[in-house]
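Input for the complex:
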Amino acid sequence: MAEKHVDEISGVETTGHEWDGIRELNNPLPRWWLWTFYACIVWALGYTVLYPAWPMLTQATPGILGYSSRAEYAAESAGAKIAQGGIIEKISKSSLQEIVANPQMNQFAIAGGASAFKVNCSNCHGSGAAGGIGYPNLNDDDWLWGGDLDTIQQTIAHGIRDAVDPDTRIADMPAFGEMLQPDEIRQVAAYVSSLTGTPKNAALVEPGKQIFLDNCSSCHGEDARGNRELGAPNLADAIWLKVNGEAEIAEQVRAPKHGVMPAWQARLSSDTVKQLTVYIHSLGGGE
Amino acid sequence: MGRGGKRAEQEVDRPMNLYTANHLQPAGGARGPGNGSGSGSGPVPPSEPLYEKRQKIFPKSVKGRFRRFKWLFMVVALAIYYLTPWIRWDRGPHAPDQAVLIDLSARRFYFFFIEIWPQEFFFVAGLLVMAGLGLFLLTSAVGRAWCGYACPQTVWVDLFLAVERFIDGDRNAQIKLNASAWTFAKISKRVTKHAIWLAIAVLTGGAWIFYFADAPGLAFDFVTGQAAIVAYSTVATLTATTYILGGLMREQVCIYMCPWPRIQGAMLDEHSLVVTYNDWRGEPRSRHAKKMVAGGQSVGDCVDCDACVAVCPMGIDIRDGQQMACITCALCIDACDNVMDKIGKPRGLIAYATLDEYDGNMALATNGGQTAIEPARVRNSDGSFVDRIREFHWQVIFRTRTLIYFGIWALIGLGLVYALLTRDRLQLNVVHDRNPQFVLESDGSIRNGYTVRLLNMVPEPRTIMLSLDGLPQASMRVVGITDVPGNIVAIPAEPDKAMALRVFVTLPPDGDAKASPVRDFRFIAEDRSSHESDAYNATFNTPGGKK
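Predicted:
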């Protein structure tokens, strides 16, 4: 410490330090402050005995209360599960219609379905369920297999073209490249294209229509509006799942690409499938 | 440190204690000569102790105008604190009927006819800013009036001191009792006093929780043991702080714990009213004035009776000058005025005065600082004061500094009143779906999704008409309200609730769909009975040029 200095005005000794002419008075602390300080030390020592504190070679001392933040996390998670328990059980026991009709279950299912969707479904369908080429957009009103609650649940539970599930949905459009001539394929593509747009060569449309009625209408329907029983897409609407333009239509006719969706009942609990169903149904296209 | 320094220049022989209370100094240090008179080169006193034992204070009771004002203020302040939660205020069946209620679980703050939602918390922030500026204003005008009259610490300590006097008697009896052995009488008095203190502390903590829940219901639950644990722990904590801070620690809180005394230093100026010992008329003080006068010596008005010291709840001697430990409770003014009345001298030896007038009078009494205080300089031969004595004029309060404080304070107040009078009780917030930005429907129309938050901020159910403005062909569907697309939808809004609506807006395929990928429109919410409405600017996304 620097040499002792007494403040002229207060008559109090200073700490001896000086900052640009400013000195700090060294007033004595009150004794209760000292006892408070001692009490804090005692508290701290007690804390290190009761709680994990001193670092050892491999881990810290556990403390005699046995507290750990992981155990606390586990307990809180278990508590949250218990808090959810009632409503998840209710969802398991209720039909989809009952869930949607009950605001509490409906809200819970939409929120739970949304998070299950992010984890399990968004890889193909996108995080906003907007899909992509080959992966259906689940927001719109165009459904291959149907957009009501039970149909959506069936699709999620058993999948599409799943290799194992016996109840999986199967739609197998033949490869018409082996049955039709390339000219005929071009004609039928022009016809399909004409249903919602303007084909490149209008002369091909008329012969194409006949080829369509002969070969395609059994599944896609005479008006080309599809058939949900068979999973045959509506070709007369604005939405295209796999193709963009006449050339790609022709390619799909020649050698169709088929998407696969796994059967989720093998991986997810039935109440999660229900929540997913309610969530998908709520996106705007549900029927 | 303008004030302490200025006075110190004039009166080097009396140590000025701006930063320490005098009772914290070594015995005899405060008023004894020599301790502070040396410039750094003087003999160094022995080291101060690191820790100082607290000196007990036994403030004497006093009567007078400031004491009366303090009693009045205390009764009003305590009444406001204890009674406010019990005032009822009818808000209809959909809101609580407590006039002042901070409903944390429902996130509503009720203050008589005002209801504040969390997003309107700026009202509270504004009031806090006003309270801060109000303190600046008050301090620059009348010094530490907050500390002396209004601070809860002061009010409760005053209450606890009154209890102490009621049980133990006044100052002398208290000193005697403190020094006496632990007889049965002493023990019973101590037990009674602390029991009453604790009872007051429990009531203080107890009153606090009633601001956060329905008071009568909570009182019943609390007494019957059914209230929430947080209610009991809050009461326990506040009981402990009230008892410890108000009963046991008292002046130690003001001196050691509170930052406000330090902050005051920056707000006082030479025109601020502070409790001042007018030594220009009091010195030289003497207990034997007549003998001194007879001996040809001049004396001031101070008879050194120590009445001002005896009544001080902070245990200081105001005659040492302005000091941090002084909370300006003005009780020493009452005590001194009583003495002056008795000995037939004019009041105001200790008075509210500004440094400016004090300096002027001091210069007069000391001939500009060239001599010691000479009473003859400020007095006529008949004992009255000379005309040149400066006195406080109320106009001093209205100076640039206080006017600026008041101006800002009033501006914020007016702003808050304006905001209160013009605020919406019907609000609309819209969040546009970002993923997907739009959905192509099978008929070629485009659909956008929105989350519309409709806030019905009055405690009555209302029917709100939600409509679209700026998208003529569009229709909307509100999930759970209507499945039939339309341009306007009636929403049944629950009282005092925010509701989140899923809204799908669909635009049919049209020729200019390619024109602009983003279209601006507005959601409009309207209560047709009260003509309140709110609008929110939103956009509608389309694929635009892309197919």
